[in-house]
Design brief:
270 residues; alpha/beta; TIM Barrel; 8-stranded parallel β-barrel; two-stranded antiparallel ribbon; 8 helices; 15 strands; 33% helix; 20% strand; globular
Amino acid sequence: MRQINVQKIKIGDKNPLVLIAGPCVIESERHCLDTAKQIKDIAQESGIPFIFKSSFDKANRLSIGSYRGPGLKKGLEILHKIKQRLHIPILSDIHCSKDIAEASQVLDIIQIPAFLCRQTDIVVAVALTGKVINIKKGQFLAPWDILPIIKKIESTGNKSILITERGACFGYNNLVSDLRSLAIMRQFGYPVIYDATHSVQLPGGKGGCSGGQREFVAGLSRAAVAFGCEGLFLEAHPEPDKAPCDGPNMIDLKELQKLLRQIKRIEAAL
């Protein structure tokens, strides 16, 4: 398996499990900075390398009135401050080609959202930045369908790739995790991340927005690490029930430390 380097963090090739975590979307500079600091402290105490994530513009919201974030300019300013003050790598997602160049000046990892993972022009444009790319496997894809997307990225010469499993469609308004996909996608030679919080999402399950079942996040996280993956992706929030989006599937920061300690024990036993 190829080792992917993100600042000083090494992912894959038998390196320690990594944590990609943060609130779904940037709510304010203070909220984002405080949350990043809390997660950094928890991750350090647990001995897990940490990459901060949050979105500056969630363009794939179900409803026109749903909160999307502060937008490209303000959002990147906030993420840059967090990167400089806390000395941690930053991941965020892009939803249109025009944002890629500016986002690449701040982000350490550019994420291709699940709904856009087959959009060739966006995938290739992100790959051409030379940045590490995190591909979210679409809920509508079989695990082996990620290979042609990897080939699109490799065609540019970029081989800094992460693959993230985030659940598969299971009827209407529901997702299910098939952990076999972790093993299948690892065969393609790149680190595989398990997104436990989006895997418990209920897409559109609340009518105008998505629901979720955060009570299953911890169990699925433990199962994925035991089954085999290179990192966990967890959206986390100090008050998820008050979050403007994806609250039902985000983990409460108060529960994060306990979960990470469990994860480290599982990792040590493998």
